[in-house]
Amino acid sequence: MAKPVKIILAGEGGQGVQSVAEIIAEAANEEGREALYIPNFGVEQRGGVSVAYLQIGDEPIGAPKFQIGDIVVALSDRAVHRTKQYVGPETIFVYDTNIEGIEDDLPRNAKKVLGIPAIDVSKKELHPRVFNIIIMGAVIKATEVVAVEDAKQAIEKKLGYKFEKNPKLRDMNFRAIERGMELVASIL
Fold first, then answer.
1. Which InterPro entries does this entry report, sorted A to Z (predicted)?
2. Structure pTM?
3. How many Å apart are CA 1 and CA 112, to the nearest integer?
């Protein structure tokens, strides 16, 4: 029995880490896999650090809690501090390079530390609102936890009502997934 993939996504409230975790869990369910998602909003839902704990596997997942993530994604300086405790020698740690002054705070015990310019890419190439979807593409590429087509179907399921009103949003979100995958592929 293969162990489930353990994912932690963390960022400031409003950065969309919970949405990303929900979409990845939905994609895993669509593939017939087991998915367990636990949101943690901390004390403040807006302006506080939001953490999503996600496990995906082929067998039932025995326990919702875990000590070490296979991939940890931190999207703010406070998220870096909050998630370092979940990093181990086999962890891939992903952070946004737009976070200033955290180089000394990045975990030293990770298997790989990957900095990607998700905020810059979303602002310059797409739209700031798809920043979290770029991150989702990065997670998918780094872990191969779900197929990209299943992730796109899960986005369609979650945001389809918005796509009906503005079809350009679909293309932008799908391009954001692909762009996130490209960013990670270039540094893996």
1. 2-oxoglutarate_synth_KorC, PorC_KorC, Pyrv/ketoisovalerate_OxRed_cat, Pyrv_flavodox_OxRed_cen
2. 0.91
3. 25
In whole angstroms, give the CA distance from residue 159 to residue 162.
5
pLDDT-derived band at 70, boundaries 50, 70, 90: very high
Name the band, by pLDDT with cuts 50, 70 and 90, for residue 1: very low
Give the C-alpha separation, 37 to 55, whole Å: 7
- In order, the DSSP letters of 33-56 are -EEEEEEE--S-SSSSEEEEEEEE
Q: What amino acid occupies position 58?
A: D
Q: How far apart are CA 142 and CA 138, in angstroms?
A: 6
DSSP code at position 3: P
User: Distance between CA 168 and CA 127 in Å, rounded?
Assistant: 11
When the pLDDT of each residue in the chain is averaged and rounded to a whole number, the result is: 92
Q: What is the pLDDT of residue 65?
A: 86
Q: How far apart are CA 9 and CA 133, in angstroms?
A: 12
More confident residue, 50 or 48: 50
Give 16's contacts (C-beta < 8 A, 6+ positions apart). 131, 132, 133, 135
- Which two three-digit tokens encode residue 152? 């796109």
